[in-house]
Each structure stands twice: as structure tokens, then as C-alpha cells.
Amino acid sequence: xxxxxxxxxxxxxxxxxxxxxxxxxxxxxxxxxxxxxxxxxxxxxxxxxxxxxxxxxxxxxxxxxxxxxxxxxxxxxxxxxxxxxxxxxxxxxxxxxxxxxxxxxxxxxxxxxxxxxxxxxxxxxxxx
Length: 128
Fold this sequence. Notes:
This protein has 128 residues and is an alpha/beta fold. The protein has a domain at 13-87: Rossmann fold (3-Layer(aba) Sandwich), CATH 3.40.50. Helix content is 18%, strand content 12%.
């Protein structure tokens, strides 16, 4: 049985939301607003640095596939570097990610900066 690939410990595989995280929050119901949406300069600088450092950048969105071309044009026009783009993220904001790979979650609050380590309490599956 083949397992999913795992990057070296030096490479991070960033999954980054688009709306409200790297640029203005545009509702799915108003995709025409994407044409004038502004990108967050700190997000652009940080994400492109991560890309240049060799990390994997995957943007994801609750938008549907019908918004792919518009979204790719916006990302490219704003200058974002990325490897992949996923659509169909569940709508709603209280995510609980369950995966067979190690997952680190970072909630975007208002600005992209260097990531720092903090000890926090997390929920895990009881292995007893």
C-alpha cells in the first residue's frame, strides 16, 4: 500500500484561505466584486517569501469551481505565487480538521507576520 507523500521537516505545506485572509472578504454570492477586491500587502509579502523559501502554497476557498478562472486571474494579477488551488471548502467558520497527517492550524486574526510558537490546549482522539 502506498502512503501519501510527506515533505521533509524543513518544508511546510501551507493551506491558505482566500477571502478575508489574503484579501477582502468577498461572498460567494457576489463574485463580480472580486475584480476590485484588494489583496492584503502583508499576506502577499509573507506568502511569496514562503514560496521562495521552497514551501508549498495551496490556496483554498468556499467558492465553487465556476469561480476558478476569476480567482486565478485575481491571484495572478495581485502577484501571489502558489502551487495549487482548491475549491468547495465547507462554508461556515468553526472548522474541526481531522486528518491522518499531522495538521497545524493557525487562525488568521488581522495581519500576516512570522509564525511564532505558543503552547496551547488542543483536542485529540483518546487512544485508550
